[in-house]
Amino acid sequence: MSICATYHQLTASVESLIQGKPKAITTINLYEYFQKLVEWGYVDFKRNFLNDRFCGLISDVHFDDDLNAVKFVFIIADAEAEYQVARNLETNKTRPLKRNKNEGADKRVNVAIQVDSANPAIAKVALEYERGITIKKLVDTLNYFLSHARKHGGFANYFIGDDPVERYQKAPKAGQPKPLAYKPKLEIKAEVDPSIIKAFEDGKIQHVDFYKQAQNSTNFDATGHFSQDKIKVSMKVDTQIISPTSTSFFDKAADVIGTFALFRKGQPDMQGSVFTINFKDENGSPRTAEYDADDEVFRLVKKEYFPEELRQPMSQEDENGESPARTNIALCDRMLAKI
């Protein structure tokens, strides 16, 4: 089976410590952020969430100064995951691989991040696909590490920029900006598959579906066995969503996203925020994508597939009987090459 990776854009910004107050002026470098996380001891550091059911970690981090790239393993450990099952290939009998009460099941994926040398606050992320591991969990984990380093790790002095307003009044620093603390914020955007935007542009959208709350569910079934929960609404696209003034791909994608956002606001009965988009690509093949209006994320994101030969064990038992994560450098290099 081929290895699948999804591609995303990571951005870093400066947030004020107090809402409504000015934001510090500083230069953000994502490559340096990762170097600092390693230096500060956040490799294999647990980020617990959902009442400690899950924990997220980064492990076995490698830096490539020539490519401005970071390669590592991202791990999600799930305390409530089902037991794996081992099968005896001779007798065909099975047995559960039980864990202790304080253990969770690891899922491990390779991650390759290339930081933009011209704008180091932006990076492209290639994430090996594995069900249960999402780009949102990775970014949540990284944001937690940076917050922990600032609040509890003793590294608050690193997150200091220049105050955009306040200046020293006396020599020898007269006229120089005063220091101002800030908190960094990482955000992710999936790289939208161009075929979706192209379909909107060329009028190749067949229909867009969503679900809304049923109004008269009590009279739905005379036998009393079934009740109506949701009603599927199917829509056609009657007008051109993309503005004639939008020439770049990003502007066109913003037009589509903005249209869904406005529609969502006018649909209080809509269950959830997911639209199903049925369209035909440039080859005339039917395609289906999902769009989550809350997260502004298309489910049909840019994907690349890599040969099975690149797969390698995600860990190797050491002399202590443990199984530390091991980054697949060859796979990371191939994922970077597709950025």
Describe, in plain words, how this protein is organized in 3D:
This protein is an alpha+beta fold and 339 residues long. It folds into 2 domains: 1-191 and 302-339, no CATH class; 193-300, no CATH class. It contains 5 helices and 16 strands. It has helices at 30-39, 135-151, 194-202, 249-265, 329-337, and strands at residues 3-16, 47-49, 54-64, 69-78, 84-87, 94-97, 105-115, 122-128, 160-167, 177-190, 205-213, 230-235, 274-280, 286-292, 297-298, 303-306. Strand 3 and strand 4 form a beta hairpin. Helix 3 crosses helix 4. The longest helix has 17 residues, at 135-151. The radius of gyration is 24 Å and the shape is globular. The mean pLDDT is 88.
